[in-house]
């Protein structure tokens, strides 16, 4: 039995050290990751062998079942190496929490064969999305427009699929299917996080057996109930956030390295930019902003760790924790602007890693679940008691 599959759970320090040890590899592969719009096999294998695909997996199924604080600390290091790779690892960790809502026979089939099975989660607003009840399961049709890692994952968690029986909707369900059963459309042509391969998946009469279905019937008012606790969803947002905080830390590493190489400060009396007091101050401000972003991120993790197992955080607590996620991203984005100033025009060269960290942070921080205006509105409503949240899922 290898070290990563042994019964002993690695310590927080061991897992962080393993993640830090992968940073040089992830950085070497970052350009390939972006060009191919997928995390290379070498990077995925390295994370698997280091046991970094088991952060959120319960001990029952061969994982480490870590506190959220420890999970995000590890994922942040992976994002520090390559934000796209960190995003995939984070999406996997979040998806595992969702997969654990599935029936026991399905989980046994998956994790009995491979405790490191890679998961993705995808939701859809496609009005044509539906699952029709058939003997032994459902047949699914519809389009899932954003599915990070769909070309490298073993299983896809298909969220909130309307279920029909005899032509009438009876509820909604979460389903599990191999992405190879769906048609993948390579649609992810964006400015950042290109390596996540967040392409579209199309289900065309895909059969999903009952053991891979979690069903929630319609409520008395005829409206569908959410088959996923809101706390689980927000924890998934925190997983994603950790890879973006890692992006800011990665850019900080690169700028520090350049300054320590004693690059000159062009058109100034400084032969070494690092000797400039203004450069020193700018670097210190960027460092402090990223540290502040880290503190906000860890505060959210601690908040989730304080929620009793099996319970949902209150709406007020969820609004507060989401607000901390916004603050974490804002501080990291402010820091990135200072780092871009220090890197100068050369930092925008396509071969310069700083511009990749910048683009990845900018794109990831616009994820709909990290939407700043909506989170602010929910937080204000929570504080003042002026109405229900406007966010439907959280």
TrEMBL record:
Name of protein: Acyl-CoA dehydrogenase family protein
Domain (Acyl-CoA dehydrogenase/oxidase N-terminal) ranges: 28-94
UniProt-listed Gene3D superfamilies: Acyl-CoA dehydrogenase/oxidase, N-terminal domain, Butyryl-CoA Dehydrogenase, subunit A, domain 2, Butyryl-CoA Dehydrogenase, subunit A, domain 3
Species, as recorded: Streptomyces luomodiensis
Family: Belongs to the HpaH/HsaA monooxygenase family.
Domain Acyl-CoA dehydrogenase C-terminal residues, every copy: 244-371
Keyword terms: Oxidoreductase
């Amino acid at each position: 039995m290898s070290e990563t599959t042994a019964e002993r759970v690695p310590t927080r320090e061991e897992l962080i050290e393993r993640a830090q040890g992968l940073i040089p590899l992830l950085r070497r592969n970052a350009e390939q990751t972006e060009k191919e719009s997928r995390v290379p096999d070498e990077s995925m294998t390295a994370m698997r062998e280091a046991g970094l695909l088991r952060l959120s997996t319960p001990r029952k199924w061969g994982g480490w079942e870590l506190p959220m604080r420890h999970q995000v600390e590890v994922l942040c290091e992976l994002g520090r190496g390559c934000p796209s790779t960190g995003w995939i690892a984070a999406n996997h960790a979040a998806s595992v929490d969702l997969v654990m809502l599935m029936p026991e026979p399905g989980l046994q089939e998956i994790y009995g064969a491979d405790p490191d099975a890679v998961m993705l989660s995808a939701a859809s607003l496609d009005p044509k999305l539906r699952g029709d009840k058939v003997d032994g399961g459902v047949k699914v049709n519809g389009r899932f427009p954003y599915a990070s890692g769909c070309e490298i994952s073993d299983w896809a968690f298909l969220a909130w699929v309307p279920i029909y029986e005899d032509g009438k909707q009876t509820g909604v369900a979460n389903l599990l299917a191999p992405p190879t059963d769906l048609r993948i459309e390579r649609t992810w042509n964006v400015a950042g996080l290109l390596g996540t391969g967040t392409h579209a998946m199309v289900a065309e009469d895909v059969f999903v057996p009952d053991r891979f279905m979690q069903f929630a019937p319609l409520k008395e008012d005829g409206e569908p109930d959410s088959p996923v606790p809101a706390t689980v969803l927000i924890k998934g947002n925190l997983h994603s956030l950790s890879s973006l905080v890692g992006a800011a830390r990665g850019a900080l590493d690169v700028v520090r390295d350049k300054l320590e190489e004693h690059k000159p400060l062009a058109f100034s009396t400084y032969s070494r930019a690092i000797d400039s007091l203004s450069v020193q101050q700018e670097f210190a401000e960027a460092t402090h902003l990223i540290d502040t972003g880290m503190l906000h991120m860890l505060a959210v993790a601690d908040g989730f760790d304080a929620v009793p197992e099996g319970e949902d955080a209150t709406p007020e607590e969820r609004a507060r924790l989401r607000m901390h996620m916004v603050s974490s991203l804002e501080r990291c984005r402010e820091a990135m602007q200072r780092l871009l100033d220090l890197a100068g025009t050369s930092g925008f060269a396509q071969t310069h890693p700083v511009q990749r960290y910048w683009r990845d942070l900018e794109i990831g921080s616009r994820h709909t679940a990290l939407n700043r205006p909506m989170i602010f509105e929910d937080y204000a409503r929570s504080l003042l008691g002026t109405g229900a949240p406007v966010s439907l899922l959280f």
